[in-house]
Sequence to fold (331 residues):
Amino acid sequence: MDQGKKQSSIIGSSNNKIYLDLKDIIREHALQFLPAKSLFRFTGVCRDWSPHLVINPFFRSTQWPMVFLDPSLKFLPEAVDIKSSSNGLLCCQGLTDYNAYYICNPATKQWQKLPKPENYHGPEPAVVLIFEPSVLKFTAEYKLVCAFPSELDGYEFEIYSSAEGSWRTSGEIFLGSCKIQPNSGVHANGIIYWTARNTKILAFDLTIERSQLYYGGGTLGVINGKLCGLSVSHQKLYVKVLSNTYTNTMQMHSNIKTWETHFITLDDSALGGAVFNPDGVLYAQDDNLVLQSGKTLYSYDMKTREAKILMNESSIISGKIVSYVNSLVDI
Fold:
């Protein structure tokens, strides 16, 4: 009898160990592939998942990127337009009153209304949201940078810091002929870049707060931490990588090139023979592309050469398309 009880105890212990191992396997190798909204619901499934992983700031930064379509965001107090995105946070602008800015996390429905800027940014502001997740910080610290037209016929830059809880206008003023596109800004290594007319690019260095003008072209994206200009021609993806960010400080007739050009042959079979215009690249981040052919949008992985149809003519809805990364970060 005693021997039977002992054996039963061993079996029970063994089953428990199997359960614990499976629980850990799911935590370490499966949860990171789930959408943030699903993870938020699963915090009640396993007691260990919630405090040690799902709510961990490092885990928030490991979610896979995706395309985020402009939704209604009904949890916000007014109708908004999405203006920028960064590592799971969205910057939205209200459509009433003084066009207030909101920073929100669509997965958790947390949001914060920013104070009114010192300067008028207009209904189509050139804003860029910057949020870098950190394992040492449990709440999001972010910056919002806006390039707005100056009375001196150029651009000035206003910066909101969540750490300070306030706006401030930089002393830097860009003077020159330049008309930037509102929704074109990207951030790479502490520098913000906006596409401007006539293949120009306006850059603003956040560290030293200095602006600079480049001549580039193509859709701006960030690959391996470097600014790139991307375009398509004859089923080849042309990638111009900014190799020298200090062109204006080089001596005249220097042989150092500002851009390095590479090209990648797109997998025609994966894309179903789709034909792309030169401006067919809508988004680029590391290995992920969003391409447009006619009224069809494709996601394309440059590493695996796999493609998926995101939207076609029958499913297209009005609205902006911005990059979005699943996250459970607290605001």
